[in-house]
Amino acid sequence: SQQGEEDPQALSIQEGENATMNCSYKTSINNLQWYRQNSGRGLVHLILIRSNEREKHSGRLRVTLDTSKKSSSLLITASRAADTASYFCATARYNQGGKLIFGQGTELSVKP
Amino acid sequence: NAGVTQTPKFQVLKTGQSMTLQCAQDMNHEYMSWYRQDPGMGLRLIHYSVGAGITDQGEVPNGYNVSRSTTEDFPLRLLSAAPSQTSVYFCASSYSKVGGYTFGSGTRLTVV
């Protein structure tokens, strides 16, 4: 079964607003990663947060990780129409090296 | 660098036919994986490899075979295609056991 569950499944916002997506997982992890997928394309790696980190930033992206709640959130600030895509979280564990398990994704629509 | 190259981009098979989806990377990555993506199911791991000569099963391995004779190539074989294998297939590679993955652009497979 898949490790991650994402919430919401779909999100529609206006340009300039912030978008928050959440990911919950079931077992202990070594890191959690977020990916973006534009329609009909492959996935692009956005950011990786290790289990000993609580928050990480990359440009307009802010990721938090709460290992006690087994959850993570991805915040995109000042959204643009170009941010319209599906966003996936994925978890990795050292004792399962090479096995990256994905959630079902959040479909984000940013309206101009 | 080309990154991760998948061929073909589109394929239609008849039930019972076999075929090989090709995946090649030029980044000298040890870790490679195959995923399938179905609507509402996110990405599910089929098989993965932690180096040349080493492969292992993922979440949904039945009906698929892999081999890894070189670091660069990781082909996925469908032994006897079934309509349930209609999906979009992604190959991905990483430099690290738990690092971020680079994805190919996908193969859209339809089995009739």
Short description, anyone?
The complex is a heterodimer of chains A (112) and B (112). With 112 residues, chain A is an all-beta fold.
The stretches of 5 or more residues of chain B where confidence is low (pLDDT under 50) are: none
Question: How would you characterize the largest beta sheet of chain B?
Answer: 7 strands, mixed
Shape of chain A: globular
Q: What proportion of the residues of chain B form beta strands (DSSP E)?
A: over 45%
Q: How many distinct beta strands of chain A?
A: 11
Please provide a written account of the structure:
Chain A is an all-beta fold. Chain A has no helices and eleven strands. The model of chain A has no long low-confidence stretch (mean pLDDT 92). In chain B, the strands form two sheets. In chain B, strands 2, 4, 5, 6, 9, 10 and 11 form a seven-stranded mixed β-sheet that branches. Chain B is globular, with a radius of gyration of 13 Å. With 112 residues, chain B is mainly beta. Chain B has strands at 4-7, 10-13, 19-25, 31-38, 42-51, 54-57, 64-66, 76-78, 87-94, 102-103, 107-111. Classes of the chains: A mainly beta (112), B mainly beta (112). Chains A and B meet through strand 4, strand 5, strand 9 and strand 10 of A and strand 4, strand 5, strand 9 and strand 10 of B.
Question: What is the topological layout?
Answer:
The complex is a heterodimer of chains A (112) and B (112).
Chain A: E1 4-7, E2 10-14, E3 19-25, E4 31-37, E5 43-50, E6 55-58, E7 61-66, E8 71-76, E9 85-92, E10 101-102, E11 106-111
Parallel strand pairs in A: 2-11
Antiparallel strand pairs in A: 1-3, 3-8, 4-5, 4-9, 6-7, 7-8, 9-10, 9-11
Chain B: E1 4-7, E2 10-13, E3 19-25, E4 31-38, E5 42-51, E6 54-57, E7 64-66, E8 76-78, E9 87-94, E10 102-103, E11 107-111
Parallel strand pairs in B: 2-11
Antiparallel strand pairs in B: 1-3, 3-8, 4-5, 4-9, 5-6, 7-8, 9-10, 9-11
List keywords for this structure.
heterodimer, A: 112 residues, mainly beta, 6-stranded mixed β-sheet, 5-stranded antiparallel β-sheet, 11 strands, B: 112 residues, 7-stranded mixed β-sheet, 4-stranded antiparallel β-sheet, 52% strand
